[in-house]
Specification:
two-stranded antiparallel sheet, 54% helix, mainly alpha, 2 strands
Length: 80
């Protein structure tokens, strides 16, 4: 069973570590965290990306380039 509600500090730290290690491999990130579902991890990534844009000095903000990279490469390569 997965946890619900607000992510704990420990879960968020594990999320940041997992993104640094596994990139956007959500399955591996989910397994690394261990307490959240794949859907919860994806939602947390979207929410955290929004927070980093708003507050660039957040702990873990260095993973923004990873979160903004599309499946086929950085978004800047796609036509606007």
């Amino acid at each position: 069973m997965y946890m619900t509600g607000t992510w704990t500090s420990e879960e968020h730290i594990r999320f940041v570590q997992a993104v640094r290690t596994f990139g956007k491999n959500w399955k591996m990130i989910t397994e690394f965290i261990g307490t959240r579902s794949r859907a919860q991890v994806g939602s947390h990534a979207q929410d955290f990306r929004t927070q980093i844009r708003k507050y660039p000095n957040l702990l873990g903000s260095d993973i923004l380039p990873i979160l903004e990279t599309g499946a086929r490469g950085p978004r800047s390569y796609y036509p606007q």
